[in-house]
Amino acid sequence: MSSFAQLAEYLSYPFVVNAIIVGALVALCSSLLGTTLVMKRLSYIGDGLSHVAFGAYAVAAVAGTTREMLFIAPVTVIAAVLLLRRGQSSKVKGDAAIAMMSVTAVAAGYLIMNVFGTKSNVSGDVCSTLFGSTSILTLTAFDVGVCGVMSVAVVGGFALLYNRIFAVTFDEAFSQAIGLPVARYNLAVAIMIAFVIVVGMNLVGALLLSALVVFPALSAMRVCRTFRSVTALAAAIGVVCALIGILASILFSTPVGSTIVLFDAVAFTLFCLVGKLSGSKAV
Predict the structure, then answer these.
(1) Which of 222, 260, 259, 217 is nearest to 241 (CA)?
(2) What pLDDT is recorded for position 136?
(3) Membrane-spanning regions, if any (predicted)?
(4) What is the CA 2 to chain-centroid distance, rounded?
(5) Dihedral sign, CA of 250, 254, 257, 261?
(6) What is the pTM of this model?
(7) Residue 69: alpha-carbon gap to chain centroid
(8) What's the pLDDT score for residue 134?
(9) Which of 203, 209, 161 is nearest to 186 (CA)?
């Protein structure tokens, strides 16, 4: 059977369609927000929140919760709020606060799963959660539904606040001087990225999610000069790499998350070459 025939057969299965839908939505949302986070030098927030999400997953798994996402989502959003507020007002600021929270969450999550977990294959569960599932069979219709709702909220929120997010991204001091509630918009972005992390854990894994946020934005910045064009191209790159990565993982039986990130890295390398050849300057 040829690769195309095999792929066509796989696409007839609902679980494959579920993975493609979730992958495209997660890549779209993370790429949109990635441009803002990278330009504001806040890309580490996504990495920190993904670690917190892992800790929340560990608690949900030990508690026997059938719908882990309903527990992980509010915990990750609360962490986003605390990170921004504590990072700005406390003696432990910025990246130090995020490093402390992320390391503590991962350590606590792994400890909880080892001490209180009832499953025999704890290492397998941890690897699956951190690096993405090795099988796309894990995505259910419920996961797709939750992903769809959260994706609509993220894309809709980004579109609604686009002008204000643009202003805060490029000149936070000026935006604050003219009366824009900068802290509120930063908080909105953090909450949206928390949603993206929650829905992307099953597909890509907690540790690899930040790659979906950073790589497409950095790739687009190699060839584009405006915020709007970078955002649009980053979204396109993210979705295309996610779809190619999912399809490649199906054909070659490779881990979904790692395959997607690999294609994101390849895309970044290609856009770096294109940027150098064309003489484009990043935003």
Answers:
(1) 260
(2) 57
(3) 12-33, 45-63, 69-84, 96-116, 136-161, 231-252, 258-277
(4) 33
(5) negative
(6) 0.81
(7) 15
(8) 47
(9) 161
Residues 29, 270, 210: CA angle, nearest 5 degrees: 35
**187 has pLDDT over 70:** yes
Q: How confident is the model at residue 107 (pLDDT cuts 50, 70, 90)?
A: confident
Query: Can you tell me the distance from the alpha carbon of 266 to that of 191, in angstroms, rounded to the nearest whole number?
Result: 29
Give every CB contact of residue 277 below 8 A, 6+ residues apart in sequence.
none
Is there a contact between 24 and 58 (Cβ–Cβ < 8 Å)?
no
At 164, list the tokens: 């204000």
Structure tokens at 181: 């509630």
Q: What amino acid is encoded at 179 in this protein?
A: G
Walk me through the domains of the chain, giving residue ranges and CATH numbers. 3-276 (1.10.3470.10)
The C-alpha atoms of residue 41 and residue 207 are separated, in whole angstroms, by: 19
Q: Quick one: pLDDT at residue 94?
A: 56
Give which of 238, 205, 202 is closest to 219, Cα–Cα.
238
| Closest C-alpha among 207, 172, 200 to residue 48 | 207
Of 49-53, 129-133, 138-142, the range with the lowest mean pLDDT is 129-133
H/E stretch holding 117:
none
Task: Quickly list H helices, the chain.
Answer: 3-10, 14-39, 44-63, 68-89, 94-116, 122-131, 141-160, 162-170, 172-177, 182-200, 209-221, 227-252, 256-278
Q: Look at the block and give the residue holding tokens 């993975």.
A: 19
Q: What is the spatial distance between Cα 250 and Cα 125, in angstroms, rounded to a whole number?
A: 21
Closest CA to 33 of 208, 201, 159, 174: 159
CA angle 176, 94, 161 (to 5 degrees): 40
